[in-house]
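Retro notes
What went well: the complex prediction finally ran end to end.
Inputs used:
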Amino acid sequence: MTRPHDFGFDETAQILKGTARRLLQDHCAPEALHRLVALDAGPARASECVWDEALWRRMLDLGWTAVAVPERLGGFGMGLVAIAGLVEELGRAAAPSPLIVTLCATYVALACGPAADELLRRIAAGLSVSLAGTDRRGSWEAEHTEVTVDANGRLSGTAWFVQDAGKVGALIVKARSAQGLGLYLVEVDATGVTIVQDAILDLTRDQAHVVLREVVPAQVLASPGDGARALVAAEPAILTIIAADMVGAGEWQLQTTAEYARTRVQFERPIGFFQAVKHPLVDMMVQLDAARSLVYDAACAFDHEPESAEVCARMAKAAASDAAAYCSDRSVQLHGGIGFTWECFVQLWFKRQRHNEVLYGDAAHQRAVLADRLLGRIGATA
Amino acid sequence: MTRPHDFGFDETAQILKGTARRLLQDHCAPEALHRLVALDAGPARASECVWDEALWRRMLDLGWTAVAVPERLGGFGMGLVAIAGLVEELGRAAAPSPLIVTLCATYVALACGPAADELLRRIAAGLSVSLAGTDRRGSWEAEHTEVTVDANGRLSGTAWFVQDAGKVGALIVKARSAQGLGLYLVEVDATGVTIVQDAILDLTRDQAHVVLREVVPAQVLASPGDGARALVAAEPAILTIIAADMVGAGEWQLQTTAEYARTRVQFERPIGFFQAVKHPLVDMMVQLDAARSLVYDAACAFDHEPESAEVCARMAKAAASDAAAYCSDRSVQLHGGIGFTWECFVQLWFKRQRHNEVLYGDAAHQRAVLADRLLGRIGATA
Amino acid sequence: MNQSSESSEQAAFRAHCKAWLASGLPPRPGFRLPLGPLEIATREQLEYLCAWQKAAHAAGLVGCDYPREYGGGGLRDCQWIANHELKAAGAPFFPNIVGLGMAAPTIFHHGTEAQKRRLLPPLFAADEIWCQGFSEPGAGSDLANVQALAERDGEGWRVNGHKVWTTLAHFATWMILLCRTDRARKHDGMTYFVAPIRDGVGRGVTIRPLVKMTGELGFNEVFFEDYPIADDLRLDEVGRGWAVAMTTLLHERGAGSLVTPSAGGGLGDDSETTLGAAGLVELAKRSYRHGKPASDDPRLRDAIVKMLIRERAFAQNERRAAVPALVDHPLRLPLQHKLTLSELLQDTARLACEIEGMAATLHQTDPNAPAGGRWPHAYMNSFGFTIAAGSNEVQRNILGERVLRLAKSK
Amino acid sequence: MNQSSESSEQAAFRAHCKAWLASGLPPRPGFRLPLGPLEIATREQLEYLCAWQKAAHAAGLVGCDYPREYGGGGLRDCQWIANHELKAAGAPFFPNIVGLGMAAPTIFHHGTEAQKRRLLPPLFAADEIWCQGFSEPGAGSDLANVQALAERDGEGWRVNGHKVWTTLAHFATWMILLCRTDRARKHDGMTYFVAPIRDGVGRGVTIRPLVKMTGELGFNEVFFEDYPIADDLRLDEVGRGWAVAMTTLLHERGAGSLVTPSAGGGLGDDSETTLGAAGLVELAKRSYRHGKPASDDPRLRDAIVKMLIRERAFAQNERRAAVPALVDHPLRLPLQHKLTLSELLQDTARLACEIEGMAATLHQTDPNAPAGGRWPHAYMNSFGFTIAAGSNEVQRNILGERVLRLAKSK
């Protein structure tokens, strides 16, 4: 396949991104977001699922769950490059919604073949779905699920760190049996499903662990033994999506902190005059630009050159995680005292970024896997 | 034993350090040093051994090879804390001499017991000695020597990365036999010894690999099987001495670069006005002070609490290596164009520091060993 | 541990500390202790800690180097010994942190005899808690921009203004208060007061808690509206406020001549209640990466050892600062104290979050949060320390200008 | 590789490049090639590289986007395609780096028709080598402080002054020369000339090589004493020198509208002649740590992969810079070019030295020096890049001010 020099970021992608920017500016501005998710500073807030369902209905009206679904299944069949543009805007707005998990789940479903056609149709029609299969140690590796399938095809065990579980209608559950890993669609209201909300720091999402007790899945998406392959195929898209979220959120952190540096006066100067403020802002920009270019590189590789998609996606996730960490850290420090308060908006992005950094493996994890790919496994040289 | 709160840095130590400062200011000022070692910029210079033998005789007159030798063997019996102060001054002046290698060798001899009494007497009287036993990969670990002893006690093989080999009168050679590691005194002019000067970057020392062909040692300092223990006992002192050299050299880099920042004018300001210059200078200072405190901590531990000497020494070497790397890097960058030239003195310290950083294991090596001590070996927890 | 260079007074005092601490530590409370004075949230925490400071003061471990007539111990160069023994014994911290670290040395150097006799004894005994009224919304790092106005009103003064970041204000009896008394002048237009703010609540003083980004309390805003203050509560002369404030900050930054009484922060169980690098080792042994203990990951091992080295270097800097022959400039090490400590705490907490991985997403109220969820909170709270008392950017300016004699950046 | 968004002109040009490069590369020379234009040391190296540039120009790969009447290819937006194919083919670099990257776009934008016709064709063909006369001992990062004085002398000018850091001056025919023509004005008191300095040697021009900290040559000092220069060698108007110099620097920093012709630097064997991160992988496989290959050390693996990521990000930034819909500010990516590339090269070389361990002490003349001793030299030479063309400190100011609209620091 060919890799377009412009990443394949075409007019449709531009329109999608532009629409997202405007919708979120209108309905998820920082003031509104803070009022929505940070009204209560008390610790009880941590395990609540707070979001704007009216905004979600607008997103559904715009068909955003359908963007990645093929046209033959009722979707728009857009490439990951266009999706990355959309997700950048969700990150920039720090918008709480089940869209990102649903997009991730869509790529898993796409990798499952015809067995997931029905699910993809439902997603295109507005079903929100999250992925469930991380173990208690936070590992997303295929073999690390704690959910098992019994001889009757019923699922039992706990899936940890399920993102936005409080907002979705269904889950794609990773489960092990003697034949290997399978993937199963589970409706959240099915018998035997208990969703236990975690108390988390990030105010712009929710997280839960999902306890399954002999749950009959609504559908088998990948039979035992076929699940790992589908997950591996979808992983570059998932990593790219999370990285795009971080790049968008980082841009908000950069612009908001730069604006503060242009207006806050100390020692009779806007603080951006001081190189101790100016240069870290430039370094935020440099790191973000590197990560952003790698996000589009990875999305383009996924769309056009699958054999290099994994390496590119891990590079993007690693660079974006590091950029997010640096931008979060400096956005608070450079805001000085005010940046350290609950009422200042920077805390919302800080916490969203910290959460995204570790999702599906932090920067060091991605680099460790990349080292295996690019330097050979340890012991291979000796 | 007890650890004095003031590190045991007493009046004698102060006098030794002060004398060294003055002597080196008078006889090894930067201009004189540059004239001595950097007269020739051509590549042939790299494998020459250039030093000021008259200055060396002054050092001998002051008894500096005798400082660590016990009084009963004709020395001054001073502690490592006092030696560290002396070595700091050698580093500050970037003085070329065989003193540092001789001090390191002295601690190996001290760990050999009565067999090395004669050698220590000779050192106190002015013999300069270097250590020989690093392998071609640069490992100083006891088991990695490439020199072997035959049944007749003759030494053969190559010792790599021998420091200041062109200046010393004798070598302490690590050699393996079936019975284990032994330590041997070899005179540099003994039959079968060939000293091949390496071409190196540092202009303030020389380095060689020493080829031994059936060399009859002048003396057995540690019998086969006893050598490793002596090396382990001496290693904290060796690491502390190299770290002290780096701390002294780093202080020169800091003060010289700060002086440049006070006087060089750009944009109508002394460049030290700009935080992009000021803050790195402060960070140089912060890193140097941490390393310096750890050097005296390590020296004091060696003198008073041998059980913690290794950990303290490795911490000092790690911190000093990192500080040296940072100071070297920034001393060139902050000097701008002029710092990048042969005629500017900073290159001399830059290269000395780069050399010291890797001697006896760089910062990461020290931390890897420290991790084994402080976190347990890998696999111990599982 | 016998110290070779100690005077006999010091040796005797050390022995006294050891003996008293062997039985003088308070029992563990039935509730969770805060991680530091800035995190004191409940009155029961405060009372427990005040009782402990009072007992330690009664035993002579608090304010040892101050004269006896001011509630001190009348000793010389002994507070560091008490601190050392307190830390070794795993004693809890002293709650009157602003009082001990900032108000006491300032009152001692600038107060009248009457002020010293009135204010210092209850400060040492934690009978009266102190808070600081320096920062304002427009005067953070740029303290010389203080706008809170004290105007002459008969014999005394009347204050109008708005202070922020006043730790412990809701528990405090007294505030050290920096005001402008002359709008036409900058540095020499300020005056320094000690304000009985608890008595002022409802009579011109309003205290409003500021919520930190963690959702916790700890700081306050304090509003003054025509708040009356007597002239005998002025410290030093009118217009000398900046100089007095510099004494305060010198001590806050660890560079003062009087050692601040301090203790560990724990009750013996380091890994549970402190935020030191030792906690990282424990955490790494309990956390997993790539299916193996995080403590087996060579990259994390390297990072943890770096922190252990920085922590030891910090302690050894304190040790070396007391050895004149190994100090090049009297302010060089003391002015690094706050800078290096705050960045060490921040980097340690950040690394802990990395070790925790996905579990670092959990709030401290989540039962599965590792180490009680304290590390992500510690990371966020660490910004209070890197920003407060002159941001670290300003600290680097001060070090560059005062120690390296570089041109002033402002 | 067919590129979906290319015009037919571009596609045809790409095919042409591929076809020509399949046979047009020069044979390996019998001597060692320098690592970059700044390291050209001997006349035989220069002649080999000039012959190569001349051949590539004749084939249409150099100056493709310039008009034909100036020796260009008359194409649109094709130079990047040539550069891409040159790099993919492992072609050697072009030696006339100052000419192609700085002089050509400046002459194109500010020169007269006659100047363009006279100067550009031999520049592209490497028949005339160019050097830069901007920096002075007192005007490094602060270029506006240029003191070299050009005074009216009849019809022409007479120049007195001292330029430093003039790469390639000893091989150059021409110099771009920034002079002060009005002492009373700063930015608008400068004028820009193109000076035939080879002809001037012995007639007012003295060239003295500057020795780098590596002991190598590469830079020069140039002294002007009553050096005469004709008025038709002035570029743009008197007093407009600063504006013209900004065009030069914009292109040097990679932010100009004209893409600079460039190639790889090697002849197919990456690990031997380039300084990229791929060289780190090879080096790590051949080096040892703790008795094992350095490529098995997880900490070094992590560090090497970081460099591979930064290197790819740099290339992807170049790619994204050409996609307007993914660019927020026109100068944002171009102005990062020199900053990120120079720090990437520096950090890569520093890491290589760490991988080498003790062997990094060896000079390139030592037969045991790994990779021919190029990494420690590359580390030292990298400071030329982080300091030159406006130190990276100044680059960060420019980015902060022009892209983030922060207050000017100077």
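What we learned: Chain C has 13 helices and ten strands.
What to try next: split runs per interface for comparison.
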